[in-house]
Amino acid sequence: RRDLCIMNFFVAKLKNDRTRSIILMAIAAVLWSTGGLMLKSLPLNPLAAAGSRSLIAALLMLAIIKKPSLKFNRYKLGSAIAYTGTMVLYIAANHITTAANAIMLQYTAPIYVALLSAWFLNERTTALDWIATLMTVGGMFLFFMGDLSAGAMTGNIYAMLSGVFYAFTVMLLRKQKDGSTLELVFWGNLLTAIVGLPFLYGSLLDARSIIILFLLGFQIGFPYILYSYAIKHVSALEAILIPVLEPILNPVWVFLFIGDAPSPRAFAGGFIVLTAIVGRSVIITLKKNISRKNA
What we know:
Blueprint: H1 5-14, H2 18-32, H3 35-40, H4 46-65, H5 74-96, H6 99-106, H7 109-121, H8 127-144, H9 153-175, H10 181-196, H11 207-230, H12 236-241, H13 245-258, H14 264-294
């Protein structure tokens, strides 16, 4: 089974190359962060929008996979359910509670990965991992602190559950890293489409909305193609810390296109998050280089 040339290129370059995988994950996070502005300009039920863009993303992935395997095991089925749960619960939370509450509570996911990855994946969580995780969550809190509120309790619960499902999505992808992780994400998007598309019933889509939906499909699909290959070469904690760049970058696009500048507190929170993610990656890379030299 032959993949597209661009995917063959990435796979060849990613082989045993953790640094390149981290870069690809960062690129994916940047691309994901552009979706906020487009979703806000789309006059659709949130679940209908999620289902539509996931369908387009699934079709994009299908063009690469060609013939996805119809054989399922508990981990493969679990990753599809976890992915769909992440998407649906986050959208439901965003609809009920404040956007800041929803994204802040979802991105408590690194804590769950730090707690569970040793048991679930045999990936030991070090002191450096805990420092980076707590700095990231603290920076996120500082970043969104001005917008956080009591919100609706049901929405906050949905957001927290979305974080749990997000953590298990990443860990289940890592659990199956020796297989086709892209295929796992494909099934997750297809299941999300099945759940969300019924909410499209009765909606009238003009040409502008259709164009935005296709852009959103590529905006979520192509980054997940990069992510699905990169996750094979990083730890579960790295695979969930690096995407934290997504909510941090959202206000950057708002500032560039709308002119609404983030507060100094938000800048400070973003700086802490970047420091935690980049600092951890640099320290681990230096340690590995020193170990190779001493070997």
